[in-house]
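Quick note —
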Amino acid sequence: MTDPAAVRRPTGLFVGLCTLDVIHLVDHVPAPDEKQTARRQVAAAGGPAANAAAVFSHLGGTATLLTAIGAHPLSHGVRADLDRLGVAVTDLAADRDEPPAVSAILVTERTGERAVTSTNATGHRLTPPAGLAALVADHDIVEFDGHHMDVAVAAGRAARAVRRPTVLDGGSWKDGTERLLPYVDVAVCSADFRPPGTSTPEETLRRLREHGVTWAAVSRGARPILWAGPDGGGTVEVPLTRVVDTLGAGDVLHGALTLDLAGRGPLTARGFADALRGASAVASRACASFGTRAWMRAGS
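Predicted structure written out below.
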């Protein structure tokens, strides 16, 4: 009998944004000059790459986050949250005193919809670190969220050199995305991700494939996920759930998907559809609770 403790955990490197998320559950988004008392509050590390790394770790992987956090007092709370979640951090801004990016998030209780403001990665211009190639080679898979683009492109190039699969979380088209796509094996994008000259999910899938992405998909909230690969495409149904909070649903999907892909080997059409199906089930469970962490505490 195999000792469970001896089973190797998949390793994932997550390259991108880390923020301090301050999340309020509200009756409605306040009107100008309106003051409102929030029903609940959550403060946690956030950002697409950070949240995906947390999910990867929670579901059984070993995650490393390559990002910028810094040495500001607010940064200590971000680090502590990631440490509690088992996410190792390589901080490319460790010697900087500026505060981390803070995302102010309002979640409407009745619908679960969210409104978000953040500086994202605009406060940090990062250069690829020495030893990046070795860091990439030490992991089974690499995931990008499109932030800190110069670092992402360098990591993608390194991943291609050592044949590590790569995954793109395409939340939106960003400056430099066209430089990253040649190093992306799997891209799962939101409906807001629109390459220049596209206006529909079908056009997005076609453009991603033209840029060399082997497997591409577009998530559309509760609607079926559209996907395309070398031999065609299809749809994957999203499980129905009572939505409490949609914040981070895409990040959860990417963390779960990246863990699945890390252990699959060469992808097939059926395998990609199955991976999307399993990841969307995890994301749907996460939408049934408030904040980005409660579903984890519930043992989902």
